[in-house]
Design goal:
7 helices, globular, 8 strands, alpha/beta, two-stranded antiparallel ribbon, six-stranded mixed beta sheet, Uracil-DNA Glycosylase, subunit E, single chain
Length: about 210
């Protein structure tokens, strides 16, 4: 069943619970892309993956642009880098609000926004979750799989690896700043293989196995 919205940015009209942004920054970097997507790319916060000025995830900053570059190569993104067109792909952050000087959120600030991220993730209802970096991967594995207690959060080992979840296939992406030779090619290859497969069956498989 498809989502009944064609809005690209903040398709479900979320309203952040606080505004601690710098004067020239957006209050929040909302979820962005195809609300009917099968692939949901999940970043950390605007200070890591960008968008404080553009309002679009995975823009402006080096780590975010490296992720966007991979998504362009496999055909999810096209057009301007600061406002790309997305097909079959949705981008969002576990902490959408922008903070002064791009600082990291506190544990309390992450917790304040958890319900917003969860609501959006469930509304998108993608088949494949692609968390980027340790914080996003930890959250996704804890909340949407039964396997976090079995898995060491070693992002170098988890990178581009399949983890079965509760109704989702999770494919973690190591932070681009930590990529070594072959890491970019590994995630490109994994995404291409998924796109060439009947990945929509992963929801049923994941529900059984996870």
């Amino acid at each position: 069943m498809q989502t009944v919205t064609d809005r690209t940015s903040n398709p479900f009209g979320l309203r952040p619970p606080f505004d601690r942004s710098d004067p020239d920054d957006r209050t929040a970097v909302f979820g962005y892309g195809d609300a009917n997507a099968d692939f949901h790319v999940i970043g950390d916060h605007p200070g890591v993956h960008g968008g404080a000025s553009t309002g679009v995830p995975f823009t402006e900053l080096e780590d975010g642009l490296a992720v966007q570059d991979v998504l362009r190569e496999v055909g999810f993104a096209s057009g301007p880098w600061d406002a790309p067109s997305l097909e079959n792909c949705f981008w969002s952050y576990i902490h959408m609000c922008t903070l002064p000087d791009g600082r990291a959120p506190t544990d309390e600030e992450y917790a304040d926004l958890e319900r917003f991220f969860d609501a959006e993730l469930r509304a998108i209802n993608a088949h494949v979750l692609l968390p980027v970096g340790a914080r996003a991967t930890d959250h996704v594995l804890r909340e949407y799989t039964t396997q976090r207690h079995r898995i060491d959060l070693d992002m170098a080992s988890l990178h581009a690896r399949d983890v079965r979840g509760r109704g989702f296939l999770v494919v973690p992406i190591n932070a681009p700043v930590e990529w070594v030779e072959g890491d970019r090619e590994a995630i490109v290859s994994r995404l291409e293989a998924l796109l060439a497969s009947d990945y929509r069956q992963t929801k049923g498989v994941a529900t059984t196995v996870g």
